[in-house]
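User: Quick one: structure for sequence A, then sequence B.

Assistant: Sequence A:
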Amino acid sequence: MIEPYVNAPARYQEYDPIAPRVATLIAARIAEIEPKLAVEHVGSTAVPGCAGKGIVDLAVLYEDGGLDKAKQVLDTLGFQRQTTRDPFPEDRPMRVGAISYAGRIYQLHAHVIREDSSEIIKLRGFRDRLRADPELREAYESTKRQIIAAGVTDSVAYCEAKGSFIRQVLEPGAVADFKNLADR
């Protein structure tokens, strides 16, 4: 089901309304194999209208003691380990893959996260804020366009560059003037 992942330079692309269907399809397949795993669609493709790299990010959530089973399920489906520099550690792994759907190849990142971790709270919080606030979404898109325009196409460097925006939004008492935040 899951095809080989192709490492490619980071690029900016418009929102694809089919991406949530892809996320739902993969989540259902994971649930068929292991119902104890919850899967949530996170990242830009989970935010209607939000442009970005176009990678479908999934949070694969496991209960205490379920990390190895979560990795095994992803392996069974054909997800692969990262081959980029600085891969996630195996105690908080990310698996990659691709799927052909609706005449297109969708790249997938499956973030394996403990269900009660602070990380999933932050991922949900950022996604939900982007969904609720068009001004924040536009500032985030502007930040990503600026990163690409500056010549940053290494996928790890791209993620690091947008990380400061995300951290500033998530910090308590974050500024409401997102336009200025994007210009930093």
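Sequence B:
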Amino acid sequence: MEKFFPSIPAKRYFTISEVSVLCGVKPHVLRYWEQEFTQLRPMKRRGNRRYYQRHEVLMIRKIRELLYGQGFTIIGARSKLQEFFQIESDHELEASIKPNVLDSQASGVPIDGGKHDSTLIGDALPDNSFLLSPAYLQKMRQELLEIRDLLGASL
């Protein structure tokens, strides 16, 4: 029971009625989903009119597929959507880390200030995949928290 949706026009904002047509869901259902799925937050303007962006239209299509196509409950779809967004944010993190690493290597400046802790990052792989290891990310997180504490103490 695959439903084909119309293509999403190249525009910045969509009204609730436009999203309703684009996703095959009635407006009252969209308003209900806003309460159930915290990731779904359309912009509200004059008179509480909702304006959805492209990524929200795609998210609504995903929610619709989970609920109607795959038979998930609201709770199940919510957790599946959170998993999906966790994977997406991991990919964004990976994309944001790799270009910076390549820039620092091109400049000849070592990332870790010349220190090489083999227990955390091992031998540097050609594709810099060591930067995505959980141990390395945990070390980076700890360092950022220490920096935040230092900055907070100086204010």
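The first strand starts at residue 14 and ends at 15. Residues 87-154 form one domain.

User: Thanks, that's what I needed.
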